[in-house]
Design brief:
145 residues; alpha+beta; Helix Hairpins; two-stranded antiparallel sheet; two-stranded antiparallel ribbon; 43% helix; extended; histidine biosynthesis; Histidine biosynthesis bifunctional protein hisIE, chloroplastic; hydrolase; PRib_AMP_CycHydrolase_dom
């Protein structure tokens, strides 16, 4: 466990962890694949509440995702969308996916800016921002690879 978080009224707990291997007894990355469907006005597990499950653990669209998994999925969707004709300006991700020179230029630029945060003593917040930029661009590159 790397962190433990409580919500503002302290009725929910989230554990941030780095699991060793799958976290579900089925071998899936997550056990959180069963979605509870509530009917209007229904609360809890009584009448009007039902459980909807099915499909593969990791493949369902409603599987809770970490931020990086969600970003990875968004990048993949942008890549899939490249095969479809579109109107208007392409997304930044689409531009990067279709222009490896631009992508590598941005990765080098973001890496330099991250190093500059340390060299210039710009602080943690600025470093985190630059690291996020670098990770995003690196994930686009990994999608292409």
């Amino acid at each position: 466990v790397q962190g433990l978080y409580l919500d503002c009224d302290r009725d929910s707990i989230v554990y941030l962890s780095d699991p060793i291997g799958p976290s579900c007894h089925t071998g899936a990355r997550s056990c959180w694949f069963t979605q509870v469907q509530l009917q209007p006005e229904a609360v809890g597990e009584g009448e009007g509440a039902g459980v909807a499950s099915g499909g593969a653990h990791d493949q369902a669209a409603h599987v809770p995702r970490t931020t990086l998994l969600a970003l990875e999925r968004t990048i993949a969707l942008r890549r899939e969308a490249l095969a479809q004709p579109t109107e208007g300006k392409p997304s930044w991700t689409a531009r990067l996916l279709t222009n490896p020179e631009l992508l590598c230029k941005k990765i080098r630029e973001e890496a330099g800016e991250l190093c500059q945060t340390l060299e210039a003593g710009e602080g943690r917040e600025r470093a985190a921002s630059e690291m996020a930029d670098l990770m995003y661009h690196a994930m686009v590159l990994l999608n292409l690879q």
